[in-house]
Design goal:
Elements: H1 4-21, E1 24-25, H2 26-36, H3 45-57, E2 61-67, E3 73-79, H4 81-105
Antiparallel strand pairs: 1-3, 2-3
Helix pairs in contact: 1-3, 1-4
Length: about 110
């Protein structure tokens, strides 16, 4: 499992990246992260919704109510133009971290 501090640090770029692909709702975002990480990031509602609220407060995402396939109302989230710009910055910052770690660990880091 990935430590909480790393999960927290990566939550913003993960959510923005997921929403850059399509509008989504909370449970679907949680399942997407779980699938992307092979289960090593097991987000819970209590972790995701404060992140979504913060992103919405900062104007990076917007929300609207919509119907699911089974007719249930869900709150969907979408990226705003400001969110698209924030995602570009997030990507560059994470790529910079990845580059630095790759220089230290090599292209195929061994776990010993």
């Amino acid at each position: 499992m990935i430590p909480r501090t790393l999960v927290a640090a990566s939550s913003r770029p993960l959510v923005l990246s997921i929403l850059s692909q399509k509008d989504s709702y909370g449970y679907e975002i949680i399942q997407h992260v779980k699938q992307l990480t092979g289960g090593s990031m097991d987000w819970k509602d209590g972790m995701l919704y404060p992140v979504l609220q913060r992103l919405e407060h900062d104007g990076l995402i917007g929300s609207y109510w919509g119907q699911s396939e089974v007719g249930r109302k869900r709150r969907y989230y979408r990226l705003t133009p400001k969110g698209i710009e924030a995602l570009k910055k997030e990507k560059q910052q994470w790529l910079d971290v990845h580059t630095a770690l790759s220089k230290l660990w090599g292209p195929e880091p061994c776990l010993t």
